[in-house]
Amino acid sequence: MASDAEHGRRRRCCAQDTPAPADVPKDSCGDSDGPRRGSLCDRHCAAINNVQGDLGDLGCHLHRPRVPPAMSTPSCYQQHSEEVCESCVVKTTLTAENAVEANKLSNNYKFGFKKWKSHVTARPWEDRSEIVKELYSDLNVIRGSGGSTLTCGNVLYLLLFGWWLSLLYVLMAAVMFITVIGAPYGQLCWDLAGYFLWPFGKVIQKVEVPKSHQACEAGMGESSALLGGPTPRRWRPQCWVGTGYWHRASTAVWLCLGYPVLALAHGLVCVTAWLLIVLIPVAKLSARATSRVLLLPPERVLIRRLRMTEVPLEGEVILCCYRAANPYYYKYAVDGINVFAVNLLPLVLVTLVLGYADSPNHLTGSAVKFTLALVSIMPLSYYIGMAIASISAQSNFAVGAVVNATFGSITELTFYITALIKGSREGNRCYAEVVKSALTGTLVGCVLFVPGLCMVIGGIRHQEQRFNSRSAGVSSALLFLSVGGVFAPTLFSKVYGKLVCGECHNVTQNPLGHYLCHNCHFDLMDNNGTLYYSHVQPLVYTVSILLPAAYLIGLFFTLKTHTHIYDIHISDCHMPGHHHSAVVHWSRWQALVILLLSTLCMSACADLATEHISPILTNSTISQYFIGVTVLAMVPELPEIVNGIQFALQNNLSLSIEIGNCIAVQVCMLQIPILVLFTIFYPTNFTLVFSDLHVYASMFSVVLMNYIFMDGKCDYFQGTVLVMVYFILLAVYFFAPSPSGC
Questions:
Q1: How many CB atoms lie within 10 A of CB 514?
Q2: Are 380 and 400 contained in the same domain?
Q3: Which has the closest alpha carbon to 632: 649, 620, 643, 644?
Q4: In this structure, what are the phi and psi dihedrals at residue 641, rounded to the nearest 5 degrees?
Q5: Cβ neighbours of residue 84 under 8 Å, at least 6 residues apart?
Q6: Do residues 454 and 648 touch, judged by C-beta distance below 8 A?
Q7: What 3 state SS string does 355-399 have?
Q8: Which DSSP string do the residues of 431-444 spell out, in sequence order?
């Protein structure tokens, strides 16, 4: 990427030789310097800045709404020239469906705002791909050519559900035939047994009642108030008064004996298939069968096998399924919430009920409850992130900044504070060491693992990825400052503290020889704690004030005085001829309620996690360092990691890098000062003095990250280096002895 000075010397490249209509905005590329600097210039800009997709990070994008052919005028991308353009302006051009979505995309590039990939508004249906449209379509569409129905997913349905569901229908058919008056429903169950054994390529249709039957029933005044259908013709040879009694009796028998059992079976199939995600079509099939097919009169249900040359069917199609599995259902969302977060939400309820109702651990042990509490944090983190993004996108800048600063780190702070409170009550210093390990693990993981993994996955699809090195430089500078400030008390204690060892042995049997000492540490409480209370503690408070102040200065710098670093431009039309109003998934008040409820549940899960982590720390053979820097540090960040990977796959590596950098900066500049402030009002064992391993790992990670990101471009090899270094550090933590006090 060209340097900043080089950008300043060059002129903008795009040209326009005739004026555009009044309603067409000017090109965002800048003014022209000649009539013939056209497509070659744009291609050069794209080659330099690697512009790809609607969300290209850097490049000379044009902002020009489509106009009719008669109104179109020659512009910079319509000209042809052999000249090479002299410059390309670093620009981030975003394309959004509506104003709310544009505000969310703009917030993604702002320092201090949560980066969120999912939409906060409903996407226009015509903008969806055919794959996504198929995910949300009902199972009542007949295709012209469905292809072969013998697929792995269909066979999996047969093995998991088809055989026993079909057998249950056969048994229910026998029961209904035995009752005699339920014989029409017995025939229906027999037909459905063959359907649910292999429903693919078959159709269930609602048959219209012939007018002669309607007239006969109208003459007798006989109808079904529940089902709204006529009496079965095959069980009624002629129209006479007594048939109405048999119809009502068969319906009552069906609703008492047949329907509840089959509804329960289909409910089990629906829940199981939904949890498996790829089998969501089976869940739709069972839900539609329970709510529609089984509540229809038997003579209104027709089951047919489709053929390639068959003419369109008459009547309403209720069910028509071709595939039991679809691997793209990981994209499925319910009211804007990803299906994985929806499926994990009941786990939160199970965790809370099991954790607080079974306090003596009669049903499960501490390890199970700790695991459940930790896994429950993941969907809650997702809901908190979605709520923050929704509120920020629908509010002004000030409200968005306050919400992001207040709730952006609520997931981690909730766990850290509950752990420190429990350690203080028990007088156990191990909890404070675990919190320090988790803080260091979050810092190292977000600096090395998150961007490294995104670079590897994005590099598989894109040979080389580029990003805005200037915006990344702001985060890097703040990261250097924050790491230096956080570890300043530790370095101060190393210089002026007194080294104290637990035991020493003379290895040479000579009083003047070498001694081998164990469990050595720098004692800050020597001479009644004079060093700590007079020197280290004031330094800690000073750093805890300066770091948030530097964070606020960074916000003011990037969002107020130097916004040109990002140069965000929002296009006002996303498709030719389409302008959509925003239909938000969550309103501001709804998002606020969800945010508060998720935070409350997060606090409860964090309390359960800290309550049941003590046996794991005591009985585990793994170092407490390793548990802190891996499980406790990275599990709450999984939603952020997923967002980073999705951005990288769209060749938007700037946001992938900023996700890790912003989390690391918030750890040092917000989370640690808040913990220090908390210890003032609630004394705990937490002191801002880290072990040597934490200091060396953090500083080395920050230096390596800045070296990799120096040139503004990367590939999968550089990402592999970052990931490998992260795993090497994990190995060091794994084999490290447990910290003192544990």
A1: 9
A2: yes
A3: 620
A4: -65, -40
A5: 40, 41, 44
A6: yes
A7: HHHCCCCCCCCHHHHHHHHHHHHHHHHHHHHHHHHHHHHCCCHHH
A8: HHHHHHHHHHHHHH
At residue 278, the pLDDT reads 93
Residue 320 host element (H or E)? strand 316-321
Dihedral over Cα of 406, 408, 411, 416: its sign: negative
In a domain, 399, yes or no: yes
* Backbone torsions φ then ψ of 568, nearest 5 degrees: -80, 130
**Residues 500 and 531: beta-carbon distance below 8 Å:** no
How far apart are the C-alpha atoms of 33 and 330, rounded to whole Å? 49
Bridge partners, residue 203, by sequence:
304, 320
Which parts of 579-716 are beta strand (E)? 713-714
DSSP character at residue 303: E
Task: Say if residue 382 is in the same domain as residue 491.
Answer: yes
Cβ pair 535, 496 in contact under 8 A: yes
Q: Is it the case that residue 235 has pLDDT exceeding 60?
A: no
The number of folded domains in the chain is: 2
Q: Look at residues 327, 358, 381 and tell me which one is the last residue of a structural domain.
A: 327
Between CA 641 and CA 664 the distance in angstroms is 13
Domain residues for the domain of 475 are 332-498+521-573+581-735
- Do the beta carbons of residue 586 and residue 386 sit within 8 Å? yes
For the CA atoms of 716, 719, 724, 730, the dihedral, rounded to the nearest 10 degrees, stands at -140
Q: Are 479 and 668 in contact (CB under 8 A)?
A: yes
**Do 534 and 456 fall within a single domain?**
yes
Higher pLDDT, 740 or 255: 255
CB 224 within 8 A of CB 250: no
Q: Are strands 713-714 and 515-518 parallel, antiparallel or unpaired?
A: unpaired
Condensed to tens digits (0 to 9), the pLDDT of residues 7-64 reads: 443 333 333 333 333 333 333 333 334 333 344 444 444 443 433 333 333 333 333 3
Q: Quote the CA–CA distance of 241 and 231 in Å, as a whole number.
A: 12
CB 516 within 8 A of CB 507: yes
Checking 102-105 for CB contacts under 8 A at 24+ apart, the result is: 102/570, 103/392, 103/393, 103/394, 104/389, 104/392, 104/393, 105/55, 105/570
| Spatial contact of 250 and 181, defined as CB atoms under 8 Å apart | yes
Instruction: Tell which residue, 408, 333, 332, 337, has the closest CA to residue 107.
Output: 408
Q: What is the CATH number of the domain that holds 484?
A: 1.20.1420.30
> Strand ranges (DSSP E) for 201-243?
202-206
Helix or strand or coil: residue 338? strand
